[in-house]
Amino acid sequence: MTQRKILVTGGAGFIGSNFVHTLLENKSDISITVVDKLTYAGNFRNLERWKDDSRFLFIKSDIADKEDLFSKLEGHNFQEIAHFAAESHVDRSILGPEEFVKTNVLGTFYMLELARELHSAGKLKVFLHVSTDEVFGSLGEDGAFTESTSYAPNSPYSASKAGSDHLVRSYFHTYGMPVITTNCSNNYGPYHFPEKLIPLMILNCLQGKPLPVYGKGENIRDWLFVKDHCLAIDMAIQKGKYGETYNIGTRNEKNNLEIVELICSLMDKRHPEGAPHNRLITFVKDRPGHDFRYAIDPSKIEKELGWTPKYSFEKAMEETVDWYINNQDWWKEILSGSYESYYEQQYKGR
Ligand SMILES: NC(=O)c1ccc[n+]([C@@H]2O[C@H](COP(=O)([O-])OP(=O)(O)OC[C@H]3O[C@@H](n4cnc5c(N)ncnc54)[C@H](O)[C@@H]3O)[C@@H](O)[C@H]2O)c1
């Protein structure tokens, strides 16, 4: 059997680490190299279970530092590149957009240049670029984003992702490279950094802290379980058509208040000492430029690649809440800040 050799950028982050787990748990004929800068959002703990597995290699590098990136990856012959690395938090992009332009635009450009070398050498089978539905802007009450929806990004984060999507597209049309882009909706699940809505609410419930909800909690997102997303990405890598884009979502629209209320009711059963948790809900000033609604039409990936989600929203939310309850060391290390030195401690002298 031919071995798949995959480079995963941003594999120490939320979705990237779930992607690594999905592949290594289910496939033996595979080797995965993760390249990650280990920013505040990258945590080597997320991958530590694989550190002695011969199918796994970790390389610390910044995709926006061309010299470091190219020198560390020289001589590796990857057939597949799954590009997750990005600055990903909208609120941080409002406070400091520069890192977003560096990593998301320049970093993606360097990744494409690295892929172009592999392509010229006849090695590259596919470059899969992971993007977001936020590039399409905001929806009103009706409709859903399709692959032909015009781009209209509203935050520095979504604008930087839109820029990277256009670069990826251009490498197909200009250099004939085997690129594919996926645009997905909001993910949730294990290993999600606790600044994002769902993990933040779960952890605040566990600690008896206020649950801050923007505005009146009416903003709507289309929630996608990270494990379904990872299976969709792997399917797009293996069966997707070069030069195409695929929207990934599960027709699962909920407003923020509904999500927070659901977390509170799950916590009431699983952590009764804090019940009723919805007493902790606090409405706070809305985020500037807050997109009202996102919704994905996933018909294309369903019809053309045969992808459908495996998990129900209710079960996946239960699994998510239980994961945070059962992995308190993971998030306590993050909240204390000590996780940032964990990789250095492990790899000192190597
Ligand atoms: N989380 C979501 O709901 C969501 C939704 C749509 C799209 N996406 C996209 O999916 C991808 C992964 O998102 P996530 O939620 O896992 O993000 P994350 O913030 O949890 O992880 C990002 C990872 O990239 C790494 N990274 C950041 N800058 C880097 C650089 N310059 N060089 C190398 N590594 C770097 C970080 O260390 C981290 O490990 C991103 O491209 C994001 O835009 C995420």
Furnish the topology, listing elements before pairings.
Blueprint: E1 4-9, H1 14-26, E2 30-36, E3 56-60, H2 66-73, E4 80-83, H3 90-95, H4 98-120, E5 126-132, H5 156-175, E6 179-184, E7 187-188, H6 197-207, E8 211-214, E9 220-222, E10 224-225, H7 226-239, E11 245-248, E12 253-255, H8 256-270, E13 281-284, H9 299-305, H10 313-326, H11 328-336, H12 342-347
Parallel strand pairs: 1-2, 1-4, 2-3, 4-5, 5-6, 6-11, 7-10, 8-13
Antiparallel strand pairs: 9-12
The structure holds nicotinamide-adenine-dinucleotide (NAD).
Describe the structure.
With 350 residues, the protein is α/β, with parallel strands linked by helices. It has a single domain (4-347), classed as NAD(P)-binding Rossmann-like Domain (Rossmann fold, 3-Layer(aba) Sandwich). Helices cover 42% and strands 16% of the residues. It has 12 helices and 13 strands. The chain has a 7-stranded parallel sheet with strand order 3-2-1-4-5-6-11, sandwiched between helices. α1 (14-26) links the parallel β1 (4-9) and β2 (30-36). α1 (14-26) crosses α7, α4 (98-120) runs parallel beside α5 and α6 packs parallel to α8 (256-270). The longest helix is centred in the N-terminal third of the chain and has 23 residues, at 98-120. It is globular and about 60 Å long. The model has no long low-confidence stretch (mean pLDDT 95). Nicotinamide-adenine-dinucleotide (NAD) binds next to α1, α4 and β5.
